[in-house]
Design brief:
With about 475 residues, this protein is of the alpha+beta class. It contains 16 helices and 19 strands. The strands form five sheets. Strands 5-6-10-8-9 form a five-stranded antiparallel β-sheet. Strands 1-2-4-3 form a four-stranded mixed β-sheet.
Length: about 475
């Protein structure tokens, strides 16, 4: 879709019209207050915008969108601005209005009997988790940015996280949506139904669309039984193939009780221990690879710990596992998870990092890591691959730390070249170039290389049907 409009919006007049709807508190024009909205989390993009609008409710949002549509002013929806592909950042020309959901942060209803919660788009993920826990329920989406990301952004990017293996992506955690359409109409699809066979599942069009078809304003989320037993283990394995073998054994031994199964390379553990407070190697001998395993059980003492311990013992005898430790307290479990979180933070201290968020079939994870590592080492001698992530669902974050002596900017200048080579391999393995971060601005052209013409044409037809003037987050996704 084109990124420019045929009409030039009168932003001064539009601001006057919008402030009558949202009040002075809902319009941000001060340059200092605008700044955080213009830069993405990784600092790769810095856009411009005449102002930021912060509607307080769905009615205000609808009127703001209607006014922008009437003025031919493109809008860029923005939640917590924690995205990693530039999808919530305007372009540098300064011709787009940022529409923030930050003030739309009410939890409208918790229906414990129906195992659902109705929330507004600006609710912080961690607040939703806490509200679910207060009702003795679980909302399982769990991300590193959960203290600042908003559920609207999670929905718009189809967020994943560390518990997809058991509970699914954001698509799997939603029963209904409320959406403001590009012309300002409100679609109220807030139905808490698990069975509704009355036509197209319209909510799925907006989940993962990154605000290009409309702005999600509220959602009915699925809740789950809160676990009564949590078992966490950290195991050393020889290679990713052994990790995949151990995943299968763990799923069978636990009766599909596996909630998380995370792959950690030795270099990632070293980065965490070197740079992040509270991180320490939990095992006596180093290994090239590790997995972090977590199981959820419905009641205390249901045998999950014994099952995991027995399985790990057999895996040790069979040479699949070199060593392992099971957490004996919540604090110890938190220590093990700190290693997983610390490897991401630790990379920041090691210079520039070229990122990949890819997925392949779980069975292809070992081949991908082996071939991708060889590929990037040939491209950039001395590069330090840090492949980690959600091996349980085939999502690997194939991050590359610069050679220690390299120039940071020169290294990062090869981002597109390296991405292209790695994505070619992913495509050969029938994988995806974006597993959970979305397409945003970074991967639009790459997506064109791998999507079939008919898939792209169907996506364009959907976009044209909902947003014929191309005013909703133009230049993203398509």
């Amino acid at each position: 879709m084109a990124e420019t409009q045929t009409l030039t919006p009168d932003f001064e007049r539009l601001a006057e019209d919008i402030v009558r709807v949202v009040g002075p508190r809902g319009l941000v024009t001060d340059p200092e207050a605008l700044e955080p909205h213009l830069v993405d989390m990784r600092g790769r993009f810095r856009g411009l915008a005449p102002f930021v609008v912060k509607p307080a409710d769905t009615r205000e949002m609808a009127e703001v969108v209607r006014l922008c549509n009437q003025a031919a002013a493109p809008t860029v929806p923005q939640g917590g601005n924690t995205g990693l592909v530039g999808g919530s950042i305007p372009f540098e020309a300064g011709g787009e209005v940022i529409v923030s959901t930050a003030r739309m942060n009410r939890i409208r209803e918790v229906d414990a009997a129906n195992f659902t919660m109705t929330v507004e788009a600006g609710c912080i993920l961690q607040s939703i988790q806490a509200a679910a826990a207060e009702a003795d329920r679980l909302f399982p989406l769990s991300l590193g940015a959960q203290g600042s990301c908003q559920i609207g952004g999670n929905l718009s990017t189809n967020a994943g996280g560390v518990q997809v293996l058991r509970y699914g992506n954001m698509r799997d955690l939603v029963l209904g949506l409320e959406v403001v359409l590009p012309d300002g109409q409100i679609w109220n699809g807030l139905r808490g139904l698990r069975k509704d066979n009355t036509g197209y599942d319209l909510k799925q069009l907006f989940i993962g669309a990154e605000g290009t078809l409309g702005i999600i304003t509220a959602a009915v989320l699925k809740l789950f039984a809160r676990p009564r037993e949590v078992v966490t283990a950290f195991a050393a394995v020889g290679d990713p193939a052994a990790a995949v073998e151990l995943l299968g054994r763990t799923r069978v031994a636990s009766g599909e009780g596996v909630t998380s199964f995370e792959l950690i390379p030795r270099i990632g553990l070293d980065f965490a221990c070197a740079h992040v407070a509270g991180c320490a190697d939990p095992l006596s001998q180093p290994s090239d690879w590790y997995v972090l395993i977590e199981l959820y059980g419905g009641r205390e003492g249901c045998g999950l710990r014994d099952a995991l311990e027995e399985m790990l013992g057999q895996a040790y005898e069979d040479g699949v596992v070199a060593d392992a430790t099971l957490a004996d307290s919540e604090a110890r479990s938190a220590d093990l998870w700190r290693l997983r979180e610390g490897l991401v933070e630790g990379q920041k201290f090691e210079g520039g990092s070229i990122k990949h968020d890819i997925s392949v079939p779980v069975s292809s994870v070992p081949r991908f890591i082996e071939e991708a590592t060889r590929l990037v080492e040939d491209l950039i001698p001395g590069v330090r691959p840090v492949p980690f992530g959600h091996v349980g669902d085939g999502n690997i974050h194939f991050n590359l730390s610069q050679p220690p002596s390299a120039d940071r900017e020169a290294f990062l200048g090869r981002w597109d070249e390296v991405n292209g080579a790695v994505h070619d391999l992913v495509n050969r393995l029938n994988g995806s170039i974006s597993a959970e971060h979305g397409l945003g601005r970074i991967k639009v052209s790459e997506n064109r290389r791998f999507k079939s013409p008919i898939e792209l044409e169907m996506m364009r037809r959907v976009k044209q049907a909902f947003d014929p003037a191309n005013l909703m987050n133009p230049g993203k996704v398509l």
